[in-house]
Amino acid sequence: MKTNKRPKVSYEPITITEIQEKRSFGLLRFVGYALLAFSVINYLAILIPPQLTNPSWEFQTIGTMVDNVWSILLGFTFIFLFNHNSIVEGKEIVTLKFFSWLALTIGIIFLLMLPLGINNTLTLYRNINNQFTNQQAQQQEQIEQITERLQQVTSSQQLLRIAANLNIAIEPNSNQAPDELKKQMSEAIATAGQNVLNNADRAKEQQTANLIKTSVRFNLGALISGVCFIVIWRLTLWTRNAKKNVS
Q1: What sign does the CA torsion over 212, 215, 219, 221 have?
Q2: What is the per-residue pLDDT across 191-217, written as a single tens digit (0 to 9) for each?
Q3: How far apart are CA 183 and CA 129, in angstroms?
Q4: Cβ–Cβ under 8 Å, residues 97 and 240
Q5: Is the peptide bond before 55 cis (omega within 30 degrees of 0)?
Q6: Where are the membrane-spanning stretches (predicted)?
């Protein structure tokens, strides 16, 4: 049984009229204002509650603001889009003039984030060094306390119990002299302490590398964002040069 094929549907080409072109640009401007509104809500959530004395919060906040700058840039770009022969009314000129100056203000704010970001990076780097220095000092103090405790013990059985508590792998042998046990335990403690220090050094290097990488990304992002907003301000000079009609 033959099946009837559906006729192919085709549409005639559409010529975009001037009105449709204006509506398309109007749609972009509407989306631009919506993006700016969403950006305000998003940035308020980022900045509230502020912790201005916390370098870690400031550092992460700068990074979050840089990561979310795209919506503001697109919003500003869209609201200034007009087609050829567009007529911009007086109220809209005032609005666009305000956003032009706002772009400059935001650009300056992002540029000011650069020295703040660098300062916070140095502060966090010092905090990392201090943290690991304190940890190493505590570990060294613990090793010294254990070593002093070993010197005060004279019984092999007591030494073996201490070794078991410290998870030091020494085979129980009552024939071993206390001095020999002390020597083995001291070597094991020194080796374990050195391993801990080596692991701490590697962790410190990893944290420092991550901090530098993140700092470069955040600070370069703040610099580029600031320049972009200043360029938007310069390219929207026509809104600020609009002549006033005094009647």
Answers
A1: positive
A2: 777 888 888 889 899 999 999 999 999
A3: 33
A4: yes
A5: no
A6: 30-48, 68-86, 98-118, 218-237
